[in-house]
Every structure is written in structure tokens, then in C-alpha cells.
Design brief:
binds zinc ion, 2 domains, alpha+beta, two-stranded antiparallel ribbon
Length: 252
Amino acid sequence: MDGSREGFGMFIFDNYPDRGRRLVGRPQGATARHNYGPQVAQYCGWNCAYCGRDLLTCYESWLDLQVDHVVPTYSTRDGIREDWVCDIANCVVCCAACNTFLNGYRIQEARIPSTEAEFFQLRDRVFAEKKELACKRHKEERNYWRQKTMRSVESIQVFMDNDSAFLQWVLDNPCGFVVNCYEKPSPKYLILHTAKCKTIRRLVKRDGNWVSNWTKPFIKVCSTDITQLEEWAKTQVGGELQPCGVCNKGRE
Ligand SMILES: [Zn+2]
Ligand SMILES: [Zn+2]
């Protein structure tokens, strides 16, 4: 099987003009997020082409939006035509992490493509190699990060009788996750929400006034990393997270 076609169901260049088999022109403008990123994303979409991360989830993810020249720009020095290398057909949207991981990538190719068709073959091969490399680096980095963070509880925050701090956390972490549970967490009630879920931030009427009761009597256990919360539920409470029917309907 062609390695470059694995992953997201279809080949990344299928949505480019002529299925990525012809030149489109150089992307215009000075910055990736404002100008040339959207010009590339109209063909390859807004997910990182290498790791699949959605770059429009929130402001922070959008900040990580970059554009990668699949056949790297330095290869013009080896004699590959500049108008091919700089074309949108050789560009994909990617995340900052993948772009960094791929900095050290070097083409193992002795032959310089002499036709556009040969260039696109090279691009596809390089894309497959880069994707494999980026995924490998993510795996290593994630393992390192897991080992480090598992030893600390810093990445989990518990809000108890402190609605304003909880509200600040959900505003600061729109991509985060929130477990709603009893003050003494029980495996019977560990509801997992996304930070954006409306049900965890409703006001209630008490003595004629609208008030918040978000962190008392129920408390909120929060993290930007869902695996931390799953681990917490398993090791600290002896249970499993139960997805909220409103915000987590699409999960699993
Ligand atoms: Zn990525
Ligand atoms: Zn919810």
C-alpha cells in the first residue's frame, strides 16, 4: 500500500486542483495565519497535514498554524526548480510542533526531477516520509511528557467552592475538559464535559436572584489533557469518566 495514502481516509493532495498533479501558483502574502495559510488550507483543510490536529479548535491552536513546503525550499539549491518547490501544490498546512519536528528532514534522493510529473512523485514520497517521521517524534515526545506530568498533579486543577476561579479556568482553557463530581468523588458520578459545555456553567435562581453553584455542592476537576483525568478517575476514585450527553455526544 502507498504509505502516503494512510491516515485520514483520503490522500491529502486529492482535493488540490487536478488532484495535486498540476501547479497552482505561489501562495501570496506575508504571514501564514493571515495570507498564505488560508490559500493552502482551501485545498488541504485546516488540520495539520502530518499529525491531524485541528488548527481551528481555539485561538491557541490557530496560533500554531504554519505552512510547510513538502519538498523543502533548500532543495532549490540542489537544482530543483524554484517555481515547483514554491508552488501551492507543494504546500500543506501543519502545526508548529510538526514543523519543528521536521526541521531536520533531508531528502534521500539522488535524482533531480526533470518533469512536473517526476516532481509530484517526489513530493508524494517526501510527504509520506515526513508524515511517518512527525508521527514518530510525536510518540516520543508524548511519552516523555506523560512520564513527566504523571508525577505531578499540576496539570489537574480542582475547584471547590470557588466559582470565580473555575470560570476563569474555563475561559482560559476553551479546549480543556471538566469532570463534574461529588465533593468526595464517587465512581458512580464522574461526568466528563468539555470546557465549553453550557450545562456546567448554568445559573440557578435562588431567593429570586440568579446565582452560580458550579463548585458547591458539586466540584469541578479540570485539565487540558483528557488522559490525566482518565488516570485520575482510575487511580484516585476507582472509576471511569462518563461522557456528558450534551457536549460529548460525538465522542467514541
Ligand atoms: Zn502537527
Ligand atoms: Zn457537557
